[in-house]
Amino acid sequence: MSGSRQTLGLIGWLLLSFAAAAIGALASVQAATFYQQLAQPSWAPPSAVFGPVWSMLYAMMGIAAWLVWREGGWRRQRGVLTLFVLQLVVNVLWSWLFFAWHHGSLAFADIVLLWLLIAATVTGFWRVRPLAGALLLPYLCWVGFALALNYAVWQLNPETLGLVCADQGPGSPVRVGFVEKLIDS
User: Fold this and answer.
1) Spatial CA neighbour of 129 closest among 167, 48, 72, 86
2) Less crowded by CB within 10 Å, the N or C end of the chain?
């Protein structure tokens, strides 16, 4: 593979990773304010930590995907690179579920799926290029931490994030969580 093609490939994988970050960020415009209003477990980091950590992780993700892509391109690595793209989509969806739509249960289900997809991607990348798999290990650990945090915050904020049934008397419809917010707006 020529040097210019490799450089373009690196730029492409980094752009894809940061495009996913940008789409997730669209859902997170009010994230800092919203996050600070939620009851937090004592071990929750300040909201200012998330941006720098995620920026580093997205860069490492792009580099890891590029290292795998260099081993035969998309044609040869289609399966594991498709898995990588799929986990990016699930990653983006989490921001929308949690920050934009305030749905803790679906965000939790999403982040569990995300962790499993990342674990599978780490394994697949490791088989192709161990360094690529190793570059994703901090991402796997961070999402594991985020999974625990998502669950704790969801449980501490059932009125805002949970499936809270609002029974309003006989004959009244039961509305649940974010659906109620959509109906009332």
Assistant:
1) 72
2) C
Tokens of 126: 């490791």
The type of residue at 158 is P
What is the average per-residue pLDDT within 125-134?
98
Q: Is the pLDDT of residue 172 over 70?
A: no
Tokens of 148: 């625990």
Task: Indicate the number of domains in the chain.
Answer: 1
How far CA 43 is from CA of 152, 153, 160, in Å, comes to 10, 11, 20
pTM for this one?
Answer: 0.85
Judged by phi (left if over 0) then psi (alpha if -120 to 50, else beta), residue 104 lies in alpha
Domain housing 34: 3-184
Residue 29 clears pLDDT 90, i.e. is over it? no
